[in-house]
Amino acid sequence: MHSKLLRFYPGPYKKVSLKGLYLNHQLHKRGTAAFPFVYANFLSSLDGRIALEDAAHQSTYIPKHITTGSDFSLFMELHAQADCLITHGGYMRALGEGRLGNILQVKNKELVEWRRNQGLKPQPAVIIASASLNFPVHESLKKHAQDVYIATGKNADPERIVYWQDLGYPILFTGEDLMVQGAPLIDALSGLSYKSIYLIAGPQMLDTVIRDKQLSELYLTITHQLIGGKDFRTLLTGAELGSEGNLILEEMHYEQDSPTGSGQFFILFGLERSKIRSVGEQP
User: Fold this and answer.
1) How far apart are CA 35 and CA 15, in angstroms?
2) How many CA atoms lie within 13 A of 190 on its CB side?
3) Rg (Cα) of the chain, in Å, rounded?
């Protein structure tokens, strides 16, 4: 039996099924090659933490008690609708060291079949954004025959650029210095004809994509827990935002008693400027 959620917004208030909640959004049909649909997904505590920092090991981690099967199921429904994923070198290093699990493939058989029925490739392409170009490529990418691109800035280390090119990985130069920037990155992916782009790269990438007015929608799970911690990550990393940070509530669902002893909201925000991009018209 599949979990039921309470839909708070839009009305009317009613119970809905967790399964298929995000698949029904049909994100893979809402963009074009000229104007890709770009979406991101995050899990946050009530006190704004998306991850804690382990100073001793110079790494970040998500406390296990704030994660749930429901949140992961919806994460994978978003994953299944993507032409390509944007991740980053830090995740690839953590994956290689076994500190994080592998989320580079759609593994649920039903979702793989869903992709096939929708005319999508069995697995999405993967874009690895990195300033240092120092990370391993996980063996699962080759195993699943996924297209892989490496995005970096124009002033990245020339030796590392040659290293990756010699291995056959295309390089996308999408920043003026070392860091990848949102608008050049999405423009490059548009040039590769990707229509639905799922951002799973963390707060730094979210920051530049929002500032460059490239984000279409933001999915946010808010667990009803306060987790504290002096060293932590939150949704954004940069300077104060202006109107670029204005979001519009589109959907809000509530799951009671998950995580155990609390609950969580599943929220979808849109950006007014994305309404034009999402239907492929001239802005």
Assistant:
1) 34
2) 18
3) 18
Question: What pLDDT band is residue 277 in, cutting at 50, 70 and 90?
Answer: very low
**Which one, of 175, 128, 185, 127, lies nearest residue 153 by Cα?**
175
Q: Do 263 and 17 meet the contact criterion of CB atoms below 8 Å apart?
A: no
Tell how strand 59-61 and strand 248-256 pair up. unpaired
Domains and CATH numbers, the chain: 4-236+245-274 (3.40.430.10)
What type of residue is 7? Answer: R
Contact 116, 123 (CB under 8 A): no
Both tokens of 259, joined, read 């995580």
pLDDT category, 58, cuts 50, 70, 90? low
* ∠ CA 172-192-76, rounded to 5°: 95
Q: What are the residue ranges of helices labelled H in 10-124? A: 69-80, 89-96, 109-117
Residue pair 47/228 in contact (Cβ under 8 Å)? The answer is: yes
Order of all β-strands in the sheet with 217-223: 14-17, 4-9, 248-256, 263-270, 217-223, 37-44, 196-199, 84-88, 125-129, 148-152, 171-173
Sequence-distant (6+) residues with CB within 8 A of 212 are 181, 182, 183, 186
pLDDT tens per residue across span 194-249: 999 999 998 999 999 999 999 999 999 999 999 998 888 899 988 998 888 899 99
**Closest C-alpha to 121, from 84, 169, 172:** 84
CA–CA gap between residue 193 and residue 181 (Å, rounded): 19
